[in-house]
Amino acid sequence: MGTIWQDLRYGLRMLVKRPGFTAVAVVALALGIGANTAIFSVVNSVLLRPLPYPDSDRIARVYTTIARRDVQRYPMSYLNFADIRDQSTSFEHVAAHASTGAAFRTGDTPESVEGVIATADLFPLLGVEPQMGRVFTREEEGPDARVVVISHEMWQKRFGGDRAIVGREFLLDGEATTVLGVMPEGFRFPVEVEGPEYWQPINPRSESNEERGASYLSVIARVKPNVTQAQAQAELDAVAARLAEQYPDRNAGRGARLVPAYEAIVGDIRPALLTLLAAVGFVLLIACANVANLMLARAASRRREIAVRTALGASRWRIVRQLLTESLMLALAGGAAGLLLAWWGVDVLSAFVPADIPRVKEIALDRNVLLFTLGVSALTGVVFGLAPALNASKAEITESLKEGGRGTSEGFRSNRLRGLLVVTEVALSLVLLVGAGLLIRSFYSLNAVSPGFETRGVLTGGVALPTTKYREEAQQAAFFERVLERVKALPGVEAAGGVEPLPMSGNGWQTGLDIEGRPPAAPGERLTSHTRVVSPDYHRAMGIPLLRGRALDERDTADAPKVIVVNETFVKKYFPGEDPIGRRVTPTIARNFTAEIVGVVGDVKHQDLETEVTPEYYASYRQAPQPFMTLVVRGRGDDPSALTAAVRGAVLEVDANQPLYNVKPMSEWMSQTAARRRFNTGVLAVFAGVALLLAGVGIFGVMNYSVTRRTHELGVRMALGAQGRDVFRLVVGQGMGLVAAGVVIGLVGALVLTRFISSLLFGVSASDPVTFAGVALVLAAVALLACYVPARRATKVDPMVALRYE
User: Fold this and answer.
1) How far apart are the C-alpha atoms of 476 and 462, rounded to whole Å?
2) Sign of torsion, CA 212 213 214 215?
3) Is 64 exposed, middle or buried (0-12, 13-18, 19+ CB in 10 A)?
4) 146 and 196 in contact (C-beta within 8 Å)?
5) CA–CA distance, 574 with 516 (Å, rounded to integer)
6) Which residue, of 109, 229, 441, 468, is most buried by count of CB atoms within 10 Å of its CB?
7) Between 167 and 194, whose confidence is greater?
8) Sign of the C-alpha dihedral, residues 297, 301, 307, 313?
9) Picking from 216-225, 324-333, 649-658, 708-717, which range would have the lowest pLDDT averaged per residue?
10) Which tens digits make up the pLDDT trace of 450-505?
11) Which helix (H) or strand (E) holds 515?
């Protein structure tokens, strides 16, 4: 212990004695360790930390599968869910839930609150008890049960933490609703979203829940302790087969799939996060190579000191231990500085992490992250310190103790380790740059895709009518008609319409189709189409072109013959080479709804810019009324947000208790669909830029050190007749030789490693030659600049001064 303490004190003196060297090394390490810590905090929260429920490994999602369309994760209808719940013996609990919303009044202006409708088994399944009161029971599922369980956040924010909240009534959608209980602080379900404010029992007897084809529910189950997932899946397969046999019209070709809840939540984001973790690992390795080069240069200047210590009896292990102690002290200092950077970086990442990444709110620097930082710091100290320490401990005592020992000129061959580190830096930097380049090209390719509508100047806002107040379809249609009349009359409004679901919102309805005049398809083979319910002016407000026939207009009332407008893909798939105008189709999910096709409009990217367009039809909200609608308002200016107050006021004029929710420009919806790709691209580009900077600094440092150590040699060359340009070519040639070796190795490594990010790419190959060539040229240009300055300094060596150099 005394010897270790001595090493620590001596190492500290040596680091303080050379503050420039220490500062540069600590900054380089802080960048690498800080970046690793920040990204690991995200990976730890999203991927590594178990779900916040007891025995969460036994919780799984249950999805509908559709073999014909290769769909593996489709929602479920209530009737199918109820049959699975009642016929399965592998599960302790099976529950269903779906997102919902309601109007909540706090003062003069109603607000929209997000909630969840769920079956009563949800909370027992999750194993979470309320902190106050109780949860609802199966007997409270129904149309007349006006009860809710609220979140801790809603209790604090909207009720001021009232301790007498249990049993209290408040207005939700204008109806008196009783609070049964308050969930614990931090409880969020579903965890994929930011978190609802309330949970209320589902109504099994609602119109949608009595239709077996109305698939909108998410289903979750808790597997019994003595049942394996394979056994549970086998039972699900048997139940799904029975349902397909009993209800072929709706369930033919459909199955059920069990997916662990953890996998269902984080499976899609795992490749991107692991890619970022690998990228920051590369940055850390480049930083280590830089610091190792600094250590090698410093060890060369300490050759005489090490020789003296050896001559006085110090063993090679003693010398190595001393130098490793100094390396570890540097690494721990870099780790401490990196932790501070990570503390700031986590806040920055949290601000830019897309909201649709699950468990975003849980990102924090916890004990696991701190242990990770400590481990990385210690490992880093060994990685960059071991090779320089072993190299320095081989010093020749006699040669180093000679008077001119310090002036020995070092040729490039004697610096193979230093050159190897440069090659490594260049190769790692190139791999990172290629990855970033591919993602950047993918992002620009995605942005070049036309969504099929115009986003500039369009404001959107949702309206959800309470069916307790607007029970009749005619009431729902009349409400939206009055709202749209007022919105269209607002100053600055060019066009206004309504749609449900809104493009880019992530929502969609799909139904089967029968085409009049064609034989009915077999069960499970029926034609399908996505459905949008719109107002007459919707396509004009969104800038969707009419290609053939007519648009939906004022003629299409509830009493008029039913009509629809279809998209171009619908025509290409179901009427190739035919004129669809005048043809009649029957959506199988809508009873007594046979409609004539009266028009064809352009294709629209409804899900996101990456998903292929599918067949789609548009029906008038007057002929297919519903209680949900998103207003789409095109203003005359570029900033549609200026219309927000006026549009909100128009809705309140029709119903003073009806809030407008999710009010945002259409461009923001578009931006959200690319948020994950933008985040991945931006973060990887930052890391690649840091790697390029570190590589450039490393090359400059090695070449500058080489010129300093070879001053005597360069002077001899110039004294013997070498010109400045010859020396310049010599220095640059040696530096670019290392760079060329690094580029070749990096290109090979990039060809192998970029295949692992192919799932993150769009419109570009993982081996895109343009990206590879461009990145190689950029890296070569930076390396050339890094070599240029030392080479210019070498050409200015005075032969007479150099020949007197120590």
Assistant:
1) 14
2) positive
3) buried
4) no
5) 12
6) 441
7) 167
8) negative
9) 708-717
10) 999 998 999 999 999 988 888 888 999 999 999 999 999 999 999 999 999 999 88
11) strand 509-515
- How many helices (H) and strands (E) are present in the chain, helices listed first? 24, 22
Q: What is the pLDDT of residues 391-422, one digit of tens each?
A: 655 655 555 455 444 444 444 434 677 788 88
Which of 685, 32, 694 is CA-nearest to residue 422? Answer: 694
Cα(278)–Cα(332) distance, integer angstroms: 22
d(CA 410, CA 759): 48
Q: State the pairing for strand pair 218-223/91-105.
A: antiparallel
Q: Which single residue is written with the structure tokens 């990444």?
A: 357
What is the value of pTM for the model shown?
0.81
Taking CB atoms within 8 Å and a gap of at least 24, the contacts of 720-725 are: 724/795, 724/796, 725/795
Q: In degrees rounded to 5, what are phi and psi of residue 171?
A: -90, 120
Residue 542, pLDDT score = 94
The answer to whether 485 and 650 are in contact (CB under 8 A) is no
Which residues share a beta bridge with 222? 59, 93
Measured CA to CA in angstroms, residue 705 lies from 584, 742, 791, 793 at distances of 81, 19, 11, 11
| Contact by Cβ (8 Å): 551, 529 | no
338: left (phi over 0), alpha (psi -120 to 50) or beta: alpha
DSSP state of 612: P
What backbone phi and psi angles, to 5 degrees, belong to 59? -95, 135
What are the Cα distances from residue 222, in Å, to 46, 231, 241, 430?
21, 13, 21, 47
**Sign of the CA dihedral 199, 201, 206, 209?**
positive
Picking from 9-13, 132-136, 665-669, 789-793, which range would have the lowest pLDDT averaged per residue? 9-13
- Sequence-separated contacts (24+) of 658-661 with Cβ below 8 Å: 658/103, 658/110, 658/463, 658/465, 659/103, 659/104, 659/109, 659/110, 659/111, 659/112, 660/112, 660/461, 660/462, 660/463, 660/631, 661/101, 661/112, 661/461, 661/462, 661/463, 661/464
Give Cβ neighbours of residue 278 (< 8 Å, ≥ 6 apart). Answer: none
What would the two tokens of residue 585 be? 């189709």
**Token match 């690649």: residue?**
688
The alpha carbon of 98 is separated from its chain's Cα centroid by a whole number of angstroms, namely: 23
